[in-house]
Amino acid sequence: MSELSAHPDVDVTEVTEATDVADVLDAATEHEQVVFCHDRPTGLRAVVAIHSTALGPALGGTRFHPYASTGEALADVLALSRGMTYKAALAGLDLGGGKAVIVGDPRTLKSEALLRAYGRFVQSLGGRYYTACDVGTYSADMDLVARECDFVTGRTVAHGGAGDSSVLTAYGVFQGMRAAAEATWGSPTLEGRTVGVAGVGKVGRHLVRHLLEDGARVVVTDVWQPAVDRLREEHPEVEVVGSADELVASPLDVYAPCALGGALSDEVVEVLSARVVCGAANNQLAHPGTEKLLAERGILYAPDYCVNAGGLVQVADELEGFSFERAQQRAAGIFDTTRTVLELARTDGVPPAVAADRLAERRIHEVGRLRGVWLPAR
């Protein structure tokens, strides 16, 4: 089933000025449901995309970002929600893929009223979509969303939630990086390796700690100077460069994109010296075919949705009554999952991104409900 659902309050003018309706429908053909949300009093403009509920209700975070247009926001949420389907499937969860984006600068637009209005929109989906934190949103924000909505994860520990999902996201990326190091250098450790981390916000900051504890040399960059300053206060031994372009041109063993998507462009792949790419950012490949360019250059790419699933595992555990120890144990399994993906890539003679897709699609087809979509119990 694929449909474009419009909320009664959707501002059709704002949508069509950014992208033609036909283009929206073409882009959403893989998706079960796309909902445009607009609340004039609070300034909320959001898009919720449900890619698949074949394995269960869709779960995915809410990204709050100053997109240049509704079309740009739509393109991002469609790609992110598809990635969540594959991420949940590969992680062995009985969940589908969804995502939401709120258009605007969270530093100026975010308010209690806006988040509660957003919660009402999520509630209107009847449990087909569970939301959580993402770029620009935090556990405290989810507490506000939950005052209007029953389908929220990633809440603060004080409210019975899993807290900041970036903790296990970083832990899972580190486990995936260990598996990639084993496949590349024969040992599952980053000791003595130089790792470049682009983006040291919520996830990158925690990843740096794991890398330093493992004996790696770490070089970082971030467009937001306060994030760099905070990291340097915690870890003065970390080296800092001025830009992502400077970082990728540096001598690296591992490159870890941990900011927004599209980091692996043709230009980046061309100059990258790292033997391994393994990071937390979603949708790192700038376009289809980038995975082949990486393989041709002898760069091992650990698929993003494989290694960054720790945060999803963390907030999904909240649905059972959160246990950090249990969630961490499950996130540790990302090491074995990444190892399986890389071994399949080797035996099948395909890039790791293709191997990961094959494993995820196999589970979706074999385990997915015959009716194809998830509906709440009546």
UniProtKB/TrEMBL annotation:
All copies of domain Glutamate/phenylalanine/leucine/valine/L-tryptophan dehydrogenase C-terminal, residue ranges: 163-372
Stored Pfam families: ELFV_dehydrog, ELFV_dehydrog_N
MF GO annotations: nucleotide binding; valine dehydrogenase (NAD+) activity
Keyword Membrane: no
Location of the active site: 99 (proton donor/acceptor)
EC number: 1.4.1.23
UniProt keyword terms in alphabetical order: NAD, Nucleotide-binding, Oxidoreductase
Example GO biological process: amino acid metabolic process
Protein name: Valine dehydrogenase (NAD+)
Organism of this sequence: Nocardioides perillae
Taxonomy of the source species: Bacteria, Bacillati, Actinomycetota, Actinomycetes, Propionibacteriales
